[in-house]
Amino acid sequence: MYISESIELIPGIPEELALECLSRLHFSTHGVAARVCHRWRELLHSKDFYYHRKQTGHTRKAACLVQSLPVRSGSDETKPVGPPAYGVSVFDPISGIWDRIDPVPKYPNGFPLFCQVTSSEGKLVVMAGWDPVSYEPVKDVFVYDFTTRRWKKGKDMPQNRSFFAAGELGGRVFIAGGHDESKNALSSAWVYDVRKDEWAELAPMSQERDECEGVVIGSEFVVVSGYRTENQGGFEESAESYDLGTGQWKRVEHAWKASQCPKSCVGVGKDGKMFCWAESNSEVRVGTCGIQLGRRTFLSGSAYQGGQQGFFLAEGENGKPERIEVPDEFVGLVQSGCHVEI
C-alpha cells in the first residue's frame, strides 16, 4: 500500500515496522489513535489501511446486534414505561468485550424498529425500518465508521420496503424482496454502492418474497424463502441466487424447509447448503439469531416463547454451543444482526 513519507509514522522506526504496529491496534483504539497526529488520522481513515489489515489478518469479525435497550421504569411502577427501544450492540468474540454504538442523531431515543443491518469494508450499514414513534416505514440509510465513531447519512432507499433481504459483496449492499407500505410482497431488487452513495436497480426476482432472508455464499447473493402477497405466512422452500456476472437471478428449489421463517436464522454449512440455526440447539429455538463470525457463530434465542434470552458461541453446525456471560445491559432481545469485519 502507498504510505506518504513526509513525516515518520513512528520516529526512529522503519515505515514497514511502524505500519505493522499500527495494523495490530484493536479497532476500539482507532478513534484515540487517529487523534495522535494528522498522518495517523489520514492512515487509519483510509480504505487502503483497512484492506492492508484484512490481508495481513489483523481485522476482527464482531457481531453487531439490533437489540432491545434496558427498560425504563417509573419511580412507583414495576412495568416498563413507553414502547421498547432498540440500539446496536457490538460483541467482540475474541476479547469478550461488549459495547453499544451511539444512536443516529435523527433517532436519539432508539433505532427504527425492524431496521436491516449489514456491513461493508469495516463499516456498519443500517437501512429502513419503522419510525420508533409513528411506526411509519422509513427509507433512511445510515453508515457507521468505527474509526471515527460517527454516523453518516446515506442516500435514501428508492422506495419504502420492510422485512427485505440484504447482503454485501465487494463494497455494495444488495437488497431484494420484502413488502411495501400496502403490505404487498415485492420481487424487485436494488444495489447500494456504499463508497459512491448511489443506488441502482437490478433485474427483479422470479417471484415476490416477503420476510425473506439474505445470505452471501461465495460470490453470490442468495435470497432465502419468503412468501407471496396472497399467501402470507406460507414460507416457501425455494431461494433465488443473484449472479453478479450476468446480472440475472437463478432459482434454487428445495433450499429451505417449507413453512419455516428464515429471518435471522439461516446458517451455511461447509458444503454450501443452508440450514436453520433454530433447529441446531433447543436453547435457542425461539427468536433465534445466528451470525457467522468465521469458524464460530454467535447465537441468541430462547428455549420457549417468553423464556429467558440465551447467548452462545458455536463451532460449526453441529458443535456444542458455549454459553456467553453477558453484562446486564446487553441481555435484551436480539431482533437481528450481522457481522462486521473491523
UniProtKB/TrEMBL annotation:
CDD domains, alphabetized: F-box_AtAFR-like (cd22152)
Name listed for the protein in its UniProt record: F-box domain-containing protein
Domain F-box: 13-53
GO biological process terms, semicolon-separated: negative regulation of cytokinin-activated signaling pathway; regulation of phenylpropanoid metabolic process
Transmembrane segment boundaries: none
Coiled coil residues, start to end: none
SUPFAM superfamilies documented for this protein: F-box domain (SSF81383), Kelch motif (SSF117281)
Native source species: Carya illinoinensis
Gene3D superfamilies assigned to the protein according to its UniProt record, in alphabetical order: 1.20.1280.50, Kelch-type beta propeller
